[in-house]
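User: My advisor, Dr. K., asked me to get a structural model of this assembly before our group meeting. I'm new to this, so sorry if the format is off. These are the inputs:
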Amino acid sequence: MLADILAVLPETALALMGMVVLILGLAKVRNHLAVAVLTLGSLLLAGVLLSHVGRAVDPGEHFMFGMFVLDRFAIYFKALLLACSFLTVLLSIDYLMRHDARPGEYLALVMLATVGMMTMASGVHLAAIYVGLELMALSTYVLAGYFRRQVKSHEAAAKYFVLGALSSGILLYGLSLLYGATGTLELQAIAGRLAQGPPSAAALAGIGLLACGFLFKVAAVPFHMWTPDVYEGAPTPITTFMSVGPKAAAFAIFLRVFDGGLAPVAESWRPLVWGAAALTMVWGNIAALTQDNVKRMLAYSSIAHAGYALVGLVAGGDAGVQSVLLYMLVYTVTNVGAFGLVILLESRGYAGQTVQDFAGLARKQPVAAFGMLLFLLSLGGIPPTAGFMGKLYVFAAAIRSGYVWLVVIAVLMSAVSLYYYLRIVLQMYLRDGEGVEPAPMVSAVWTERALWACAVAVLLIGLWPGPFAAAAAAGLGIMPLP
Amino acid sequence: MRLSGMLLSALVLTPGTVGLVLLLLTPRNAKSLHRWVGMLTSLATLGLALLAWSRFDISDPGFQFVEVRTWLPSLGISYRLGMDGIALVLVLLTALLQPVVMLSSWKQIDDKVKGYVASMLILETGMLGAFLATDLFLFYVFWELMLLPMYFIIGVWGGERRVYAAVKFVIFTLAGSLLMLVGILYLGSLHKASPAGVWSFAFEDIAKLTIPGGAGFWHNPQLLAFSVFALAFAIKVPVWPLHTWLPDAHVEAPTGGSIILAGVLLKLGTFGFLRYCRPLFPEAWQAATPLFVTLAVIAIIVGALVAYAQKDIKKLVAYSSVSHMGFVMLGLFGGTVTSTQGALLQMVNHGLSSGALFLLVGVIYDRRHTRLFEDFGGLAKVMPLYTAAFMITTLSSIGLPGLNGFVGELLIFLGSFKTQPVAVIIAATGVVLGAVYMLTVVQRVFWNPLVHEANRGLEDLTWREVTAFAPLGLAMIWIGVYPLPLLSLSEAAIRRLIGG
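Assistant: The format is fine. Below is the predicted structure of the whole assembly, which you can bring to the meeting.
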């Protein structure tokens, strides 16, 4: 019992602190900085607790009636998810101040979403996974519509909610079919049942629906339609958050369920994921080509990146899982950087909406332009940035497993992606913008801090990926295999 | 001895490091600081290259001054540099051209000088690294490192259609190089699947592998792997019909960019064929020889004819590159020691002569802001020094005995005649065509009557332009008269490669 409480201590602490922040919001505390620092402190506290608890508990043990584990895999993802939320809060501080929005509910919702994501990373029981997922999703729906007086934000929330609820329904239906076929909700037991013989039709249907639900959550084609509208309409820091946090958490359960519980029937779902990966990379990149709105372009780009990560999932095995873990880290620091720069430019009075708004930026904002260049190169996978190393591990794992053609598609699509990433570079460095003078400088120190952290991480992983790859490798060998 | 342990790293990393420092730490407006730092760094790099030359043992066919550091042990990726005779020759060419580029841009580039100098220096690190890397993966990293600086050089400091040219350059290059990455990863995974059981991308490890062959194309791993490497290199050379990016890039690039593009970047393609395609995929190389010989001959003839049809001198020089690189490809796929030596020598020759031609075209463009033949005529009287320099370069380019071009072409033809007689006979007509179009330029620009008043007062070469041309001109004459030292540098390495 004590061990159970110990294992969920980071989540508990974060949830309690979330309540405190929520109450501060209800008490109409409008001191943005104080509330934000409290939130940052809570996230740090959760991180510290995680590192201590992680060392104290047995990674092989199941807690909370077999629902929850705290193995290396879970710890890796939780650390990553906490980092996502931390960066999101950093990006949000200046943004909330600038829009004079109430900080309490906003930050509390970010914290609750984080609790949900952390639960997903630890869940080894389909019910626990589902509960974590819903906690995350419901919080994010509200966050997407946080500026409820803006039509676009409103639209984003409504679309996200309707489609998200639909996908949750599909997921739930898949879970119930799987339960019917195997008689259990525990991943380890499911794996045991499935290993006994060829899967029944109900199990296959359940796996298919489950795959659809997960593909929706990672925004893979053909379940991606909600992404561009939601990303465009949501407050930009929340877009940033949605593009990394929930996506990483969704990959965590995708890996845990498919490469873990459903590993015995891998041959039945691998072709499905292969196809989704290929479609996602092709469509995500091609659709991004035609976008003029930067947020929509980055939305399609993040769809494409889910495709690359799916390649690692298809590759499977230790190398494949390791590559996905590393890719999520790389993708997080890069994507937060790219979106963060859009936020920074918005705060400096550049519209930052269309690609043309970036014209001549190299001259007007040399440091910001250089940062954007770095993040775009990383998204495009050009050495010596983190993005290149992430793709390298994914491709190497896939080639090792014999999926050469999928890698060929991936690299060709990377070449396509460079075209639209370079469109922004081209505007920044090759075109002279009109002499639009930026609006009076608004303080954006917190945004800048987050960006510096991302830039350093992108370069560090790009030049010296060994320790990060080792950290990802340490998150292996945890699948609840029979 | 201890010094030589770091020699190649110093050579490769010096320019790029200085470039980054310039970029990040110096004020934007210190133009002459940037110019001087660029010049001195280029000279220092040249000094290091000469130092490597002086210590190089020409009897040793393997890699010298080897450096190995682990980088990514779990994937077997290491930082490996090594210099054989082939790499040494091309490193010398690169290091020699770099100061020329800096001098040629001294006055011409007056906007965003910092970015220009930094791009050039980072580009040099990419080029030298690609020649000296002995780990396939490291080679790829340096190869990609060249992409962005060149994109900026064309796109920021180029001519009117610079953006189009820059994007086209990037898309062509990337499409090839990313597929090559798949090939490289495939070779690494073969090593993992071999008895060794670990990932490795070291050239020496990969060279020991036997890459399985098979029937047809799609079921023949060796041929497929060869194809992705060959595609990346063929785009760079460029082999006809993948050359269409080249005229755009050359015409739009600033003079310095054109010099480095023609002088060194194209050589990376042929270097890749020689260093990677031939030793790693011997059977595929044999199978592909007829194709590449045919394409080389087409490039020689078509390149020359199209060059003849141009009205713009710079475009003419650009198409002449397609033709001349065809000779190099013919020499490589001629397959004998002699033809390969000729090909390597011709890479240097083309680097010198096309570099010099772009330099000289830039000189009159700076004065007249036009490059069309019809705007010139009678320059011989107005600009005697310039005329002399242009004549030397032209004669070198068309292969007049006594100058460098002759030696290279002769070796290619002699060496390839045994294996590809028909191709050599057709290609030889390309030499005649080359003489026709180059001498037409000389005729129209220098000897025709001076009809345009604007040309009467043109200033002859300044001391800076003479200094920029001098090393190229001297090298052309030296190689033409006494090519033996240069040939003997690479002979051991080529003999080992060909096994002759």
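One thing worth pointing out at the meeting: The mean pLDDT of chain A is 88.

User: Perfect, thanks a lot.
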